[in-house]
Design brief:
With 291 residues, the protein is of the alpha/beta class. It contains eleven helices and eleven strands. A five-stranded parallel sheet has the order 1-6-5-2-4. Strand 8, helix 8 and strand 9 form a beta-alpha-beta unit. Helix 5 packs across helix 10. The longest helix is centred in the first third of the chain and has 20 residues. The chain starts with a helix and ends in a 13-residue tail after the last helix.
């Protein structure tokens, strides 16, 4: 009985220890996530077909689209809070349970970061991106299956954190504010003016820095070390005191970068509307350049 009691105590201490050490972390190593797995909800952002072939036991499949406005030019923006609350609760999201979000980092578009950013913005402080994605957890022995999804309901209290999101108005008001840096996380071709995803106009926000989001990943899909990330941000001339507003096409890749930078202690915000919204505005009020 004493051994059983000690074992149960360890199971309870591990999550507390992880949260104690990682209270401001947005990203967990596969080992940290594996330790939390028995008491966590796993949201899987891989393709639906891959998910149904194999997934972590008890996990739920999600896509960023179902939480976002469906039509252009506002497609990147989140749905109203009351709709988000019902949708997320239907997936089992609960304020009192950690949420681990997984993906295929090299093949996806940063959807895991988008879900983590969304949950953090809505006030869920224990939502985490799992470094290395689904494979990282599976390789550490996380139980997998191809069985159906559970139907557990959650209870979510939404308390939005305005510090995590940027609006077009905020960007317009701070285009020349040196405390702000606008970080374009798209491919270089997009930064230079190509419009492959239905943008109304091409180019980038004047003065924006360019950092393709996948440049923060190793070849194996794991995220760069803190030192490597810091060096890349420093090379762009961005300091710790800077307010970083990340954007892409619809706030997906930029949400992933926001998650990574927040995990490193930077003051980063995601512009969810991103280029779909910005490029739909007039050139005078919503300027773009390809230079």
């Amino acid at each position: 009985m004493k051994l059983q009691s000690a074992f149960l105590t360890i199971l309870l201490i591990i999550p507390s220890f992880v949260f104690g050490q990682k209270s401001e972390s947005w990203i967990l190593t596969p080992g940290e996530a594996r330790a939390l797995l028995p008491n966590s909800l796993v949201l899987d952002t891989r393709s639906r077909s891959i998910f149904y072939r194999e997934h972590i036991n008890g996990s739920r499949w999600v896509s960023w689209e179902e939480f976002s406005v469906p039509n252009l030019p506002f497609r990147g923006n989140l749905l109203p809070f009351e709709i988000l609350k019902k949708k997320l609760e239907s997936y089992g999201v609960d304020n009192n349970q950690p949420v681990l979000v997984v993906s295929e980092p090299k093949n996806n578009w940063g959807e895991d970061g988008r879900i983590v950013w969304m949950l953090r913005y809505l006030g869920h402080r224990s939502a985490f991106l799992v470094d290395g994605g689904y494979a990282g957890l599976k390789n550490l022995g996380a139980p997998v299956s191809n069985q159906g999804e559970p139907k557990n309901k959650g209870s979510l209290s939404i308390k939005p954190d305005a510090k995590l999101t940027a609006t077009s108005s905020e960007i317009k008001s701070n285009l020349k504010n040196r405390k702000y840096v606008f970080l374009d996380t798209r491919e270089e071709r997009e930064f230079l003016g190509e419009t492959p995803y239905g943008e109304s106009r091409g180019g980038h926000i004047p003065g924006a820095k360019h950092l393709y989001y996948k440049n923060l990943l190793h070849e194996n899909g794991s995220i760069l070390s803190s030192e490597e990330i810091s060096e890349k941000i420093k090379e762009l001339g961005i300091g710790r005191e800077t307010i970083i507003v990340a954007y892409c096409t619809g706030g997906i890749r930029s949400a992933w970068v926001t998650t990574v930078l927040r995990n490193e202690g930077y003051t980063a915000k995601n512009y969810a509307g991103s280029m779909w919204e910005w490029s739909a505005g007039n050139e005078k009020d919503f300027p773009l350049t390809a230079k």
